[in-house]
Amino acid sequence: MNREQYTFAAQDRTFSVTVVRKKVKNINLHIRNDGNLFISASPRVPWAYIEAFLQKKSDLICRAVQKMQEQQQNSPFLTLSDGETLLITGKPYRLDVRLGLRNSIRRNQDTVFMELKEDTPQTRQKLYHQLLQRIGAPLFSDSLQRMLPLFKEYNLKEPVLKQRIMRSRWGSCMPLKGIVTMNTYLVIMPESIIDHVMLHELCHFIHPNHSRHFYDVMTVRMPDWKERRKAMNRYLPYCI
């Protein structure tokens, strides 16, 4: 998988563009939380064609980035400082940070305790990710068990479930290998949103694209999926 870096200018803004080359039929655009653009495209598609595609989407891109910036101003990003509020499955937890003999993190009732032997931003972030990953394993497994029966008529085999920190997508799947990967940051969100992403990935086992048929399968099983997807934006400040 090759990555290429470009810049794109629109409406007095300059965007950093990462192009990932892989076997896809269409040009896929993702606008990251930091305002940078992430593109997946076939190796055969030249940058000039991608640039023209972005130019057509320039109004949408600028509006989306402006909205993200406004949301970030209203909801500052998490810094993992003592006394801050963390979210786990949408519920608030107070962060208690203390110096100690080791680096560790644990959750107890409504508090997350972080003990630091090495007090650096990198250590705090690493412990935060460890907590989310630990909680995510049973959460994602439970979600799979809730969503898989909705595909009974397709006789889907239970996929291998994985998780990892991802910056450009909430989930991914490999239908031919029977693997679903969930973004660890989903642990921050309510189970209803986790179920939405799980359902989305399972629908790709039926339609490995984002065609109208894909969304038909999804809507039948979760009529309010658009509302659940929209609600994800409020949790972006916690995805650090």
Detail the topology: elements first, then pairings.
Blueprint: E1 2-10, E2 13-21, E3 28-31, E4 37-41, H1 47-56, H2 58-74, E5 85-88, E6 91-99, E7 104-108, E8 111-116, H3 121-147, E9 160-164, E10 171-174, E11 179-183, H4 191-203, H5 212-221, H6 225-231
Parallel strand pairs: 2-4, 6-8, 9-11
Antiparallel strand pairs: 1-2, 3-4, 5-6, 7-8, 10-11
Helix pairs in contact: 3-4, 4-6
Please describe what this structure looks like.
The chain has 240 residues and is an alpha/beta fold. The chain has helices at 47-56, 58-74, 121-147, 191-203, 212-221, 225-231, and strands at 2-10, 13-21, 28-31, 37-41, 85-88, 91-99, 104-108, 111-116, 160-164, 171-174, 179-183. It starts with a strand and ends in a 9-residue tail after the last helix.
Features:
240 residues; alpha/beta; four-stranded mixed beta sheet; 35% helix
Structural class: alpha/beta
Residue fraction in strands: 25-35%
> What is the subunit organization of this protein?
single chain
- End-to-end Cα distance, whole Å, is 25 Å
**Rg calc:** 20 Å
The strand order across the widest sheet is: 1-2-4-3
Mean pLDDT comes to 92
Order of SSEs:
EEEEHHEEEEHEEEHHH
Work out the helix count.
6
* Gross morphology: globular
In total, how many beta strands?
A: 11
Low-confidence spans: pLDDT under 50, at least 5 residues? none
* Most strands sheet: 4 strands, mixed
Determine the fraction of residues in helical runs and give it as a percent range: 25-40%
